[in-house]
Specification:
CATH topology: Deoxyribonuclease I, Chain A
Strand order of the largest sheet: 1-2-3-4-6-5
Strand content: 25-35%
Number of strands: 10
């Protein structure tokens, strides 16, 4: 896994190269004020798939990048002071055969999923997920179970707000311990940046 800080304030993570696809994920902490950074990065590095968390976009805000299809799940204000945060997006090159999978609405957790069926490759799904720090730290595994069942060979990337010493955090939070337990129970691999940021 590659973790890089770009322009001192644009930190992203390259999950891995899978089927010759560069898959990047990034916690934007708001796209509107950082869209120029994002556009410059995409233009320079041209990743096939770019997953974004904490977009903080509202449905009325149009956002596009040339040569990419963009799928979003925006947080909508529903008498919840936290709802202005969150939001996820998946950017994928238009040239890559894919399909958007509508993601169920979850309480607090936000996710956006696509499926890919590449020639001579096993099909897989990829999800951008954001779990805010105020969400119940033990219930998110129900969401993960749902996302895993959306299609074969799932990849789920994002900001889980889960800390654990296994991936370099100084402490083990309840959500971090629950994520480790869940991963071991269902046999999934957790890839994390080499250092917490």
């Amino acid at each position: 896994m590659l973790s890089v800080t770009f322009n001192n304030n644009f930190s992203y993570h390259n999950v891995k190269t899978l089927h010759n696809l560069d898959i990047i994920f990034w916690n934007a902490n708001g796209i509107r004020n950082r869209s120029a950074d994002l556009r410059n990065f995409v233009e320079e590095h041209s990743p096939e798939i770019f997953l974004i968390q904490e977009t903080k976009l509202r449905p009325e805000f149009n956002f596009n990048i040339p040569n990419y299809d963009i799928y979003r799940t925006d947080r909508i204000l529903q008498n919840n002071p936290h709802a202005l945060g969150g939001g996820t997006a998946v950017l994928i090159k238009k040239s890559i055969p894919h399909q958007h999978i509508p993601t169920p609405k979850f309480h607090f957790v936000v996710a956006t999923t696509i499926s890919l069926n590449l020639v001579n490759k096993d099909p897989f799904t990829i999800t951008s997920i954001y779990i805010p720090p105020y969400a119940v730290p033990t219930l998110f595994t129900i969401v993960l179970e749902t996302l895993i069942q959306l299609g074969p060979n799932p990849i789920i990337c994002g900001d889980f707000n889960a800390q654990h010493q296994i991936w370099g955090s100084a402490i083990n939070t309840t959500r971090g311990k629950e994520l480790v337990r869940f991963a071991q129970a269902v046999g999934i691999e957790i890839l994390a940046p080499p250092l917490p940021n």
